[in-house]
Amino acid sequence: MSRIVEISPTTRHEGHSKLVLQIDNDGIVERGDWVSINPVRGIEKLAIGKSMEYVPKIASRVCGICPVAHVLSGIGAMEASIGCEIPKDAHTLRVIMQCANRLNSHAFHNILILPDLYLPGTDTKINPWAPEEPVRSAMKRILRLRQIGQAITQIVGGEAIHPSNPRVGGMYRNISPQAKTKAYDLAKEGIPLAHEQMDFMIALLRNFQDRDWSGFGETQVPIPKKLGYHNQGYMATDPIYGTTSLADHPSWDPDRHREVRPPGYYMGECKVTFEDPTYPIGGTSSMGTEANPQRETCTGIPLYDGQPVEVGPLARMKVFHHFDERGTIGQAVARQLEYTNDLDLIITGLDELDTGGKVMADMVPGGDGSPGWAVNEAPRGSNVHFVRVKNKKVQWFSMLVPTTWNFPVAGMALAGSPWQLAEFIIRGFDPCVSCASHMIVIDEKQRIVAQKLIA
Question: Domain count of the chain?
Fold first, then answer.
């Protein structure tokens, strides 16, 4: 007989979400719904009537972890709408920012998943802040890699969190030769650290993969060999940067995309019929708690070729590097493999950069209302911005962010695993839930969800 268990809120990721899980008598997930319960941001509506320079900057405020991706997606979409090509050195600076932000983000994710992993040769889960080796050295590497990523972003972008230097038409300013040398020295410092951290994390992940069980309090939960597997496809537009509708041969097709509402992909009204007060931390939701994932979720369901698809490091590795792993461990390993590539590309970009080169287009049109779109391969996957610009004002703006793509796929990936491992599985997607929230309940009594705010 199936039972319902709810984990609310989920932990160690950005934003607020919960899991509503249908499980069998052995505690194996038969169906899992990962539900965004994050307050809607409404950036798309705030954008209407604003200047094309202003909107990408407010779009970055949807999140403090991946603001670079939103700035670059937003600006790229504006340029696509108005038909503006940017100079080569401006693009090079943007790629450097992209890689630096990804370095910081991937290092941060290491901190979030370390408590799920074990010290090799022991049954002790890792405390990232423990003073003992090898954890202490690993955390020092992680923090330094984050510092390097943020410092390079600040050098090139003006600020590390919400960069101000990128603009429609290119960049406000090039960097100085001295700044280029500083960024180069930072990237060179990061390469051996990234190799060490990549090897350390992959060893921990392989150790977890080889284990028979994971502990939750006094309970030993079996680890499936196909943890987090699903049968959906993978989507990535570029190994590093992305594509736009201005490209001669765009690697993404908006006509193959559509978005549907949660019914059909989420459970309807249900009640919790199983609880575990020992589940860390604070236990699961109490028996009798009412849930309705169809009505509660603040995300739509994006489809590509009629199906949900996974985006992110694993998708990029599969599409562009023929990586053959799947599931939660495959996601985590793929993320580590991007560490060194990011730093290599920063160095390559700095080698190619002419600090005396032009970084601003000669002319920036005002736009005639034509549609434009840009996809940026953010740390978490394909980040799509759509826009119409007329006379330098935004008429329509839409954000389709990586975690929105991954919400339905992650739910499918939960099936077949013990329910206690569900949070570990969704953390494999490195969720950014705030970015993905685009709907809001407008009638609580009738449980009516607003029309899609990005329409």
Answer: 1
d(CA 68, CA 198): 23
Q: Residue 396 carries which DSSP code?
A: E
Output the CA–CA distances (angstroms, integers) from residue 303 to 234, 310, 450, in the order listed: 11, 10, 20
Instruction: Please list the residues that pair with 259 across neighbouring strands.
Output: 302
Q: What is the pLDDT of residue 453?
A: 39
Q: Using DSSP bridges, classify how beta strands 17-23 and 3-7 pair: parallel, antiparallel or unpaired.
A: antiparallel
Q: Is the pLDDT of residue 455 over 50?
A: no
The reply to whether the predicted model has a pTM over 0.90 is yes
Q: Report the CATH number at residue 121.
A: 1.10.645.10
Structural domain of residue 42, as residue ranges?
A: 3-449
Tell how strand 309-310 and strand 233-234 pair up: parallel
Kind plus residue range of the DSSP H or E element containing 29? strand 29-36
Say which amino acid occupies 362. Answer: D
What does residue 71 show for φ and ψ, rounded to 5 degrees? -60, -45
Structure confidence at residue 452 as a pLDDT band (50, 70, 90): very low
- Tell me 218's DSSP state: T
Is residue 20 in some structural domain? yes
Supply the pLDDT for residue 454.
36
Runs of H (alpha helix) within 48-163: 54-59, 67-82, 88-113, 135-157
CA dist 369 and 371 (Å) reads 6
